[in-house]
Amino acid sequence: MIIDTHLHLIYRDWLRYPWLKDVPALDADFTYERYVREARRLGISAVLHMEVDVDPVDMAAETEMVQSISHKPGNMIRGVIAACRPEDEDFPDYLEQQRANPFVKGFRRVLHVVPDDVSEGALFRENIKRLSGTGLTFDLCMLPHQIDKAKALVDLAPDVTFILDHCGVPDIKGQGYDAWKDGITQIAERSNVRVKISGIPAYGDLETWTLDDMKPYFDHVIDAFGFNRAVWGSDWPVCTLGGGLSTWVATTQALLSGVSLDDRQALFSDNAKRLWTLS
Predict the structure, then answer these.
(1) Cis peptide before 237 (omega within 30 of 0)
(2) Where in 61-143 does DSSP place strands (E)?
(3) What distance lies between CA 209 and its chain's CA centroid?
(4) What average pLDDT score do residues 95-108 get?
(5) How many CB atoms lie within 10 A of CB 129?
(6) Mean pLDDT of the region 51-77
(7) Which residue in 92, 174, 178, 233 has a CA-CA distance of 20 to 30 Å to 133?
């Protein structure tokens, strides 16, 4: 059983995605039906939808759209990680609205697409503290040079579970291992942080990356966090840029060569079940 904790769906006739114009390869509809045909063949049996950085006015509508899709018989979507703007004054009201919906499992604000000082603002940090006691997680999507800012957020709310997306977004193509590894070690020292094994082929050479390119990054993340603090995600459709869903599942299986069944199961499903109360 595989639980995919990082699925993006793109429906351009429902929602607005301002960033798509800058990524022509992803400027298309990526529907649940398109994803699920391949996913079921690979053993994926449940998924969480990850927000897709829609226009801020569409944030609540994105959750509503995905929840409506999930109502279809046999659907694999078990919840959403919703978009949010902790830097905005209306965040408390938005939080309460989303918190009332058990389909919402957590939040994400992509921080490498905004100025570094956004996450350092007093309002942003006060609103992150508001997640304490809610049971909702917060995904960190930040670049290696921003790791100190990630640590600061994590330390604000020690009872909130933070998820470090995409192994901390290493620059694999640029051979950025040394600039990345110490930050991973440091943030892994925080017991309220989990790491998401997802997305890393997109940071290698899209045409020529190999298993050997991915392995040092995977190995260091697991050394730092352990299998009991890691979850798996496809990052579909972004993963199509570097080979696709089947390639990423096969790559992960190869990276797990020699790993015990218990550790494989922890990464692929058990940790996600516990973290987000999934069935």
Answers:
(1) yes
(2) 77-83, 104-110, 137-141
(3) 21
(4) 97
(5) 13
(6) 96
(7) 233
Closest CA to 60 of 94, 90, 96: 94
How far from chain centre, in Å, is Cα 240?
16
Cα separation of 11 and 9, whole Å? 7
Would you state the structure tokens that stand for residue 88, as one six-digit string? 């905005």
Residue 77 buriedness (CB in 10 A; 0-12 / 13-18 / 19+):
buried
CB neighbours (10 Å) of residue 225? 20
List the one residue out of 142, 250, 157 whose CA is nearest residue 195: 142
- Contact assessment for residue 188 and residue 168, using Cβ atoms and an 8 Å cutoff: no
> CB under 8 Å to 254, separation ≥6 — which residues?
211
Q: Are strands 137-141 and 162-164 parallel, antiparallel or unpaired?
A: parallel
Per the structure, the complete domain to which residue 204 belongs is given by 2-276
Cα-based torsion angle of the residue sequence 56, 58, 64, 67 in order, rounded to the nearest 10 degrees: -70
Structural domains of the chain, count = 1
Burial 29-48 (b: 16+ CB within 10 A, else e): ebebeebbeebeebebebbb
Residues 232-253 pLDDT 10s = 999 999 999 999 999 999 999 9
Assign 11 a pLDDT band (cuts: 50, 70, 90): very high
Structural tokens at position 220: 């260091």
